Amino acid sequence: MPPVTPSLRRERALLRRGSSAVAGMDEVGRGAIAGPVSVGVVAVSATTTTAPRGLRDSKLLSVERRESLMPLLKKWADFWAVGHASSAEIDTWGISSALRLAGLRALRQCKPVTDLVLDGHYDWLTAPPESSTDSCDWPDVVIPRVHVVVKGDQKCSSVAAASVVAKVTRDDIMMERHERFPQYAWNRNKGYGTADHHEAMARHGFSREHRRSWALKGSH
Q1: DSSP state of 51
Q2: Where are the chain's structural domains?
Q3: 9-170 belongs to which homologous superfamily?
Q4: Which residues are registered as beta bridge partners of 84?
Q5: Backbone angles phi, psi at 79, to 5 degrees
Q6: Average pLDDT over all residues of the chain
Q7: What is the largest CA-CA distance in the chain?
Q8: Pure H helices in 8-151
Q9: Global confidence as pTM
C-alpha cells in the first residue's frame, strides 16, 4: 500500500479556528547511541500553499530526495528551525528532557506560533518530565497549544517537513563529526547502533559524542 501523502488539512483547520501560525514538530536521533537528538520545527500560515511535490516522512525518503527537498522547504515554509541537545545533555537529563530542550531551542529561533502539531503518542514539549530536576536550564520560550498526532509525519505536511529539515541537519552534523572520529563510520550509520558501529566501539571505546549513560554493547 503506497504511503499517505501528507497534507495541510489539520494545519488549515487550526488556522480557521483563529491560529495566526501553525508549526509542525518532529525529532530525529532519539534512538542513536552517539550524537545529538535534533528537533525540527516548520511553520505555515493561511497563505501557505501545498507542500513541495514528493514530501514524505524523512524515513520514507532517500538521502538524495531529502537533500533535494531542503531548498524547496526553506522557501515554502513561513519559517523553520532545528534545535539540538547533545549526548552529554542526554546523559545528564535523560532522553525525554533532552527532547524538550531541543524542541524549546528550535522554538526559540522562530517567530511565535499559536498552535503546534507534534508527531507521536504524547506531548514531551509542554511540561518538564518528572525525572528532570530544577537545575535543568530550560530556554525561556512561550509554548504554543500542542496537538499530538500519531504518525503526524505521514499525515501533516508541516510535520513531514520538520522531519526532513531535522534529519538533513543532524546528518550533516554527523558527517562533520565523522571527520574527527572516522573509526566509527558515522558517515554511514549517523550514530545509530549498527553492527559496524558496535564493532568499532569494541575496538576503540567511547568518544565524547557517545551517550555514556546508555547500555552500549561492546564499549569500554
Answers
A1: P
A2: 9-170
A3: Ribonuclease H-like superfamily/Ribonuclease H (3.30.420.10)
A4: 38
A5: -165, 165
A6: 92
A7: 57
A8: 9-16, 63-76, 87-93, 95-108
A9: 0.93
